[in-house]
Design brief:
With 185 residues, the protein is mainly alpha-helical. It has eleven helices and no strands. Helix 3 (44-53) packs across helix 8 (118-129) and helix 9 (137-144) runs antiparallel to helix 10 (148-166).
């Protein structure tokens, strides 16, 4: 099911909720997600939509994040900002987005998606490697060369290793994705 709102209308809804710097990041992620998707035989417009909405809730106060996406485990209770993906999904649903794969990509951009959700993999990679971040260029290039699964595997592995090195607990969903990628062909 497509969105009942136009991309322009959704952009304005997002713009109203985020700081200007966040909007710049969102637009870079959306453009890169579209490019990665297209280079991997996926629907670029759906990837762009997921990118446009992925951080819609990122600048909301903690209490609003908790209202939209009540914490489900200790990691989420200790780190309410980690709820922003699920909260953004709730906003997208309220705004008329009904495409389940797009919604899963939005929610999963924080913790990861199962390897079967190629759109979600494209968004995850775009978010961690968009040029404005200045990191993970090799993962971005791998994804743009048509190696989506391998790029995603490296992206999730990097995240797990980074969190472990910083002593930050890894979310159970991220660990599950990490393990499933270890077993993926």
């Amino acid at each position: 099911m497509k969105s009942t709102a136009s991309t322009a209308e959704l952009l304005e809804k997002v713009r109203a909720l985020v700081r200007p710097e966040r909007l710049e990041h969102i637009l870079r992620v959306a453009a890169l997600a579209k490019e990665i998707a297209e280079k991997n035989g996926l629907d670029g417009e759906r990837a762009y939509l997921a990118g446009l909405l992925h951080d819609a809730a990122r600048d909301l106060p903690e209490e609003e994040l908790k209202r939209l996406a009540p914490p489900e485990n200790e990691v989420e209770r200790a780190h309410p900002l980690s709820l922003h993906g699920r909260a953004a999904r709730r906003l997208a649903e309220a705004w008329g987005v009904g495409d389940e794969e797009v919604l899963e990509a939005i929610e999963g951009h924080v913790f990861g998606v199962e390897p079967g959700n190629a759109l979600g993999m494209a968004l995850y990679i775009a978010d961690i490697s968009e040029p404005g971040r200045g990191v993970n260029g090799e993962i971005r290039e791998l994804a743009l060369s048509g190696e989506l699964l391998e790029a995603y595997r490296r992206a999730v592995e990097n995240k797990v290793n980074y969190l472990a090195a910083k002593g930050i607990p890894v979310h159970p969903k991220t660990l599950a994705v990490y393990r499933s990628l270890k077993d993926a062909p």
